[in-house]
Design a protein that fits this description.
Helix content is 53%, strand content 8%. It is built from 8 helices and 6 strands.
Length: 199
């Protein structure tokens, strides 16, 4: 995202990357980058990615880390629809569109799990061919590693239940320090358990 997207896409194509972040909206909304310039860059970069068969990933999850995930859920859906349209114009096939969203509703909010499930289902239904990118809860991760690990398990459950295509893993120590290898190992175990249990 940001500047030099076509150049980075070309390097990614040469190196045969599997997937690449490619989203102009983040730079426009959060970094004050010139909209015309970055949308043109994104268009050309996505043409390169489409030709090279590289899956693109979009950054809608950023919208929910900076605002209320219930009140602003529509911004994610609107951006997903825009990103799908821009990707199709660039020649990107639906199965190469990792349209993003995130599990970022305040866990203290009543029925938060139901809202998270509904939003994940909406993304899956709107984009049935796309490998939807699902980001873990980070905004409400705290020093309570047990609660954070439980939140990550609920995230993994929803991701598996709704068939999210690309699921990143939550780290229980994320709010405390840069996760160690053991933290990453526990995150993988958490996901593997849920992925086996919910087929």
């Amino acid at each position: 995202s940001g500047l030099c997207m076509p150049e980075i896409a070309a390097m990614g194509a040469i190196e045969r990357l599997d997937l690449m972040l490619n989203d102009a909206m983040y730079g426009i909304l959060f970094r004050d980058i010139n909209p015309k310039r970055t949308l043109l860059d994104q268009y050309f970069a996505r043409m390169i990615n489409a030709y090279a068969g590289i899956e693109i990933q979009t950054g809608e999850d950023n919208y929910l880390t900076t605002s209320d995930a219930v009140e602003k859920a529509y911004t994610v859906t609107a951006s997903q629809l825009l990103n799908e349209s821009f990707a199709l114009m660039s020649g990107v096939k639906p199965e190469k569109m990792g349209l993003g969203h995130a599990h970022e509703i305040d866990p203290e909010f009543e029925n938060s799990f139901s809202y998270e499930l509904a939003h994940a289902m909406l993304s899956r239904e709107l984009f049935p061919a796309a490998p939807v990118k699902y980001m873990p809860p980070t905004k409400f991760a705290s020093g309570n590693i047990f609660k954070t690990h439980l939140m990550d398990a609920m995230f993994n459950f929803i991701g598996q239940l709704t068939g999210q295509g690309v699921q990143l893993l939550g780290m229980m120590t994320e709010a405390i320090h840069t996760p160690h290898l053991v933290d990453r190992s526990l995150a993988i175990e958490n996901a593997q358990y849920l992925f086996r249990a919910v087929k």
